[in-house]
Fold these 2 entries.
Entry 1:
Amino acid sequence: MIQIKNLSKSFGKNQVLKNIDLDFKKGKVYGIVGENGAGKTTLFRCIAGLEKYQGEVSSTINPLKNHLGLLLTEPFIFSKITGKEYIRLLVNARKVEITDLEERNVFDLPLNQYASTYSTGMKKKLALTAILLQQNDLFILDEPFNGVDIQSNQLITEIIHKLKSLDKLVILSSHIFSTLAETCDEIYLMKDGEIIKKVMQEDFKKLEQEMKSFTIGNKLEKLGL
Amino acid sequence: MKKYFQLHFKLINRRLIDFGLPLIVGYILLLLVFYFGSEYLFSKTEFAKYIYGFVALGFVSRLSEAKRNDFIKSIFGTSAFLKIRMLENLIYAFPFALFLIYKEEFVMSFLLMVSSLLLVIFNFNVNLNFTIPTPFGKKPFEFVTGFRKTFFIFPFAYLLTYAAIDVNNFNLGIFSLLLIGLICLSYYIKPENEYYVWNYSLTPKDFLIEKLKIGLLYYTALSIPILIALGIFFYNEIGILLVFFIISYAYIIAIILAKYSAFPDEMSLPQGILIALSFMFPPILIGLIPYFYSLSVKRLTTLLNDSN
């Protein structure tokens, strides 16, 4: 469904993505993990067409961006716009008619309030609701669980399962390993702009342990607590 | 406190440098734009001093943003905060007050300085606990957010129209119409986050047409009461009225296209100058609109036309 070949991206002299090759198929959920600054968000922005890049991103659906639901890490919300109007703006942009918005407000958001007054988690849920209502074929979710309460986390997990069962493609990043393990078919590990490892479901536990020992190492001792 | 103002001076300098101007040129240009802009306003209407005071207070009130004030207070404490805010407001209002003195509008100048000081105590920028209703909710966002930020101006404009009819002053009526136009233009000055443009499954041309349609439709909705009232009560002047209305349309089109001609960046200085020139000589718009249109299409192509 999406093929990425030799994708590179630089900001000035700083190369943030290095020769990335990936192949994403519909009906699957892919996780991208890596430290802050590893290049996950830039990779997502390149796929979406929000950044210029070297290399190739091709898709069986054209144009890709018109069928892609993109959830940003920190959704940008206008001041003085209500949750309902935010959703309407995004669905209008994709020429989708929504008549039963109140009913489809699965996160029980106060849609008539200004969205800029929402908490971080509520903004994320609002943005997720909007891209789900856009009726996209594929989804890029950049840290969808970040700042969201436990109940909503469970709901988001179920939504991802449902999208998969509907043969949609989902690519997501998260810093919470358990959520990735619960939702993904494959996980790609990114480091310094490169994909350094591809891990299948049966090896998720092993990956988590490896990451834990690598990340923590002897750092606690260094703190001298 | 001294460091706070030094830092702000640095920030202003950085903005000018980012604008692509040598500092000295930037300051001279600012001064010239301010002087000639003010002169132009005073040459055009007898109500200039009121508009001038209103614009100046609008500038000053931008410093009253609640989060900004909370931040300053948390760093400097209440007493230094008050001093900083008073000084800031006076610095912002000073050029306007000085120009009013130059125009021998001493009372207005005094009132402006006093009002600027009072703005420190009365923080109008309070987050109201309710959502201001808007008739534009079906097609967000420019008129939705803009209307909520400027809703208090519309009754004032309609009141001016009433006054114009009452005192049989057609010029005042035209001014009220132009006031609505200016407010609507302000909704398009800042570019939105590129995500909101990216979301559209439209070609750049269709996207621009959609934006223009909404802008003109909603501007019409806000100005039609004035147009009808003036058309009825100043029937003999209907030709002039329509000319002003059509010119406002042209400005709305120009400002929307100007915004996207620089997108996702803010309008550049040359673009700003072109727009400013068009206010002094409207026929420029005939060339400016197609020019901004072609630039906008180019600017939006990467974002809207998927190359994948």
Note: The two ends of chain B are 53 Å apart (CA to CA).
Entry 2:
Amino acid sequence: MFEYAPAPESRDIVDIKPSYGLFINGEFVDGHGESFKSINPASEETLAEIACAAPQDVDRAVHAARQAYDAVWSGLPGRERAKYLFRIARIIQERSRELAVLESIDNGKPIRESRDVDLPLVAAHFFYYAGWADKLAYAGFRRSPTDGAGGGADPRPIGVAGQVIPWNFPLLMLAWKIAPALACGNTVVLKPAETTPLTALAFADICRQADLPPGVVNIITGAGETGQALVAHPDVDKVAFTGSTDVGRQIARSVARTGKRLTLELGGKAANVIFDDAPLDQAIEGIVNGIFFNQGHVCCAGSRLLVQESVAEELLGRLKSRMATLRIGDPLDKNTDIGAINSAAQLEKIRMLSEIGEREGAARWSPPCELPSRGFWFAPTLFTDVAQSHRIAREEIFGPVLSVLTFRTPAEAVEKANNTPYGLSAGVWTEKGSRILWMAERLRAGVVWANTFNKFDPAAPFGGYKESGFGREGGRHGLAAYLDV
Amino acid sequence: MDTERLAVRKTYKLFIAGAFPRSESGRSYEVRDAKGNFLANASRASRKDVRDAVAAARKAFGGWSGRTPYNRGQIHYRVAEMMEGRRGQFVDELRADGSGKAAAETEVNAAIDRWVWYAGWADKIATVTGSANPVAGPFFNFSTPEPTGVVGIVAPDSALLGLVSVVAPAVVTGNTCVVVAARPLAAITLAEVLATSDLPGGVVNILTGDRAELAPWLASHMDVNAIDLAGAPDELAASCAEAAAENLKRVLHPAAATDWTADPGTARLTAFLETKTVWHPVGI
Amino acid sequence: METLTDAASLGAFLHGLPGVDQVGADERAARLATRSIKTTAKARAIDLAISMVDLTTLEGADTRGKVRALCAKAVHPDPGDPSVPKVAAVCVYSDLVAEAVAQLKGTGVGVASVATAFPSGRAPLEAKLADTRRAVTDGATEIDMVIDRGAFLAGDYQKVYDEIAAVKAACEQAHLKVILETGELMTYDNVRRAGWLAMLAGADFIKTSTGKVAPAATLPVTLIMLEAVRDFRARTGRQVGVKPAGGIRTTKDAIKYLVLVNETAGPDWLHADHFRLGASSLVNDLLMQRRKLATGVYAGPDYFTLD
């Protein structure tokens, strides 16, 4: 047996302060709410004391953003905005190891993922949108060719964007929000998730290093009430939210009377469809990557496995063998595949839904694995004999839990895949080209991964159908969310 | 004996699933011209008619969205041809509604031309809004627009041009719709045009009646994917937008009043399109 | 398996194997290559890797003297450190087998001989069999044959199968390693099919490359072959070994291969009976890394023998 010795990434590279204020108008200031602690979910140790933004702090941040918008940012030529964003992208690359370690400590995700997935994508996103900042007139978003002087005017930014992001990809979601907003000429007030504020606060420091004009980016920390206050602030012109469908619904309701622009990237219950002629070994990797990537804390996770009956038994055997090789533990160990669940509350939700799955009659299986005694952990879990009517087949679990269903024909696969209020992503595995395109046409989801899964790129639009939200992030399409079009 | 021939009047009914039923409620309301003269008894649709119309639109969606864009374009052009044939009737109806002769003719011309304009978009919008995405890896990656699904439309007061300007962009891309019309006469004549234009039944469903009564049912319907509040006054629009949040409907509610004679741009086409991004590895 | 008695069913079987998506396979191999093997794990991995090496010289300029030197290195890779394990075998051309056998008698180090018109495989079957028999007669314990890539690429699987079976028969007690020459097969689908074909025909090992064609061994190709031997055992009960050969020069590379074995075929393959590394310069890098672990300072090439 080949035991891998511990290979921990050094924490020395990060310098976590005992406490953090709110980043408003280029400075860290105290908040008027009751401060809270950010903890390391792998050890439950307290990392830092975080300020909480009360309504008057939100007001101050929005005011700073408005001032910066009016006085500086909206009037700055696109090429100048571009250079700021390029600078930010470069600084992120320069500090990527530090940011990756910080992300893993605060979030619980494996360092391999924060290092090899999150951080490269964060830098790439800023690079990508930096290049758009002085090319907006070419993006095809003018109302009509006769709109604007001589037809060549830049589309206008919206104004102040209030952005609320989740805890699953803290810095990446920040990048998805801030990069296009700034490229288009908006200023932002961003609230990171309560449990993962540290990389956003490090980003505040990056803005200072880049000499970004004060007030263009404001980071306010806090919980749900802070987010509500931001979304409801009358001087916010645009709201962007990534998170649960329930909160998205509340936000949609709360901005309904205001005329604010809104984009939402919400939950999902993606079907990953495996045909009997799939490239099986790669499909296994795709299934594993689909549901166990980032502990399954992924809105587009392939949480419903739809397997053609003729290959189900063989596939599940292979999948179980593969799951047995997954390494669960210290997020900072370079060989860890599955890290810690982000919070006690999320762990409770995953446990609850898994217990419901058992009670509803599905067969539960996990590979033998030792979980650390401190921190929040959940073994990779497989449910077989799952029916479409089971809650574990319908509700987003947002954890490392895979529900397996079977189908007989392509039509049945499509029908089952689409039988959900969500529509964020889907996977298809088959070596038959025409069937891939047939499936891709019929799956009602914003992203279809064929013979791959959980791939992201700043050039590729991402976002949902139906209750998975509206608006796109990434690509040319991502600009629409931040332009007055 | 020299008597004037008694005209055969048209019964203005609803348009649901390609048929012309009366409201299931049995209700109707008087339509009068600008001088107060009686014109017709129009059907006053109920929430159950909304329900039936949504069911018809949903049933039609798969087939309609699955048609080739070329075919949808052909059918839309056919609609314009049929409108042209009913030009006189449309003009009469707009005049009955209070328009002067010249204005009525101008509006009908514009409405027919608008329909032709949208017909041509059927097989072009994907070219304009789709993309091949240069991702940093060995993947072929493309994004295409797809129809959102069933669109609820609260039509604007502009009896024909406004109506055409909200219906055509929604359905030409493959959506199906349930329209609550503002003015029954031109709307139901348009329905007759649609019924004879090879448009599959259920793609467009037109209800007449009280917008304030019907719009909330459309806005709250969980099988409606999007709602166009063009013809909803502010308070109604706000409450509909709130109700629409329940299933995250796409809501189109332009802040300013729309000039229906202006170049419409592509905004009403893209409002009811989803972007689908497909990834596939590139290898041997 | 027993139904594959004619060319048509053989072809149907090979083409019925699940396809391989190249991008996914490359990604998986690259992912495994990021495993970080440190300290005690690294020490064990280095010794395991040394014990799996087929120390190889396959040059036109090879002489008995060269082979003698290689054999000495095989038995005592680091003459100053008796705790260093022996390599698994030396690998030479068939005419030098007798010399290697003489040198390695009683050491436990095997003698592998390339045969069958290595490296091109372009010779009549009688010549290939004669080549094999001569090596076996001279005492080779292992035969590394090449398949007829021309026949394989032309779809004549039966011919490839028959040749392997014939060579296997000629091997008698010697183990047969079948070289697929994956650099000429071009696609991973072909690698998987060729691997299965060799195993069906009786191979004891499937080997990537001759070392004479670029690319030689790669991680993804080895991954595909490891999946094949894993699936073959699940289906038939017989455990076939895998040997990547060519281009493996550093400890880092060797450890990546061991990780691949560990997490693909599984720990059952982590033994020289079932996994070999065809290499020559690799051994000295393993020795240098081994000494670095033991002493804490970086070693230099002057402190290790050339061969």
Note: Residues 134 and 321 of chain A are 51 Å apart (CA to CA).
